[in-house]
Structures are given as structure tokens and as C-alpha cells.
Amino acid sequence: DDSLGVVNDLLRWANGKLLILVFGDLSAAACQRLREITSHAPARSVQVLSSHSSPQAVEHVRDPHGHLQGACHVFGHAWALVRPDGYLAATGEAVDAALVEAIEQSLCLN
Fold this sequence. Notes:
Layout: H1 7-14, E1 18-23, H2 28-40, E2 43-49, E3 60-62, H3 67-71, E4 78-82, E5 88-92, H4 97-106
Parallel strand pairs: 1-2, 2-3
Antiparallel strand pairs: 1-4, 4-5
């Protein structure tokens, strides 16, 4: 809706679940994997886009100046896993097994 927000707004939206921030464009396969992951784990995902990119995900936010991406210490197409307390738990490049493993570690499942 083009309203301004801050990271805490995203954490409130996640409602106590892990927050998966996915930066940049998403393939159809990555969107499907995120749907599967969030249907089985206590996590919510949101696509983070520059000001000119078209969203592939229903849930998306704009980061026109790259502040959110910089705060997560990721560059280009990547993901960041944020705990409900705002702690950056993990980062990675592809929506793959590494993300699943990071979620398991954050939940103390492995």
C-alpha cells in the first residue's frame, strides 16, 4: 500500500514467528519452496525489493535505499532469517536446504 514502515513493523506482522526476508527477484520455484517452508515451520516470509522491481510474492516491501538489506549484511539476491526478538539468525544466497537448516537451528531442532 506504499505506506512507510520500519523493521519492527515486519516483526509485529510475523507475530512471534521467524521472519524470512528474501531480497531481490524470486523464481517460481523459490516462491513454491517458501510456501512449503512457511506452511510447515513457524515462519513468515516477505520479499524485499528495490523501488523499481516487480514483486513475485504477495507479501513484499520496498527497500529503495537498501537500508534493510545493509542491516542484514547481505548483498544481491539473498535471504536473511530474523528471530522474533530482532536478532539476525542466519543469511544465505538461495532458498534451499541451507534456509531449512537455519530455521531448524533457530528453533533448536538440530
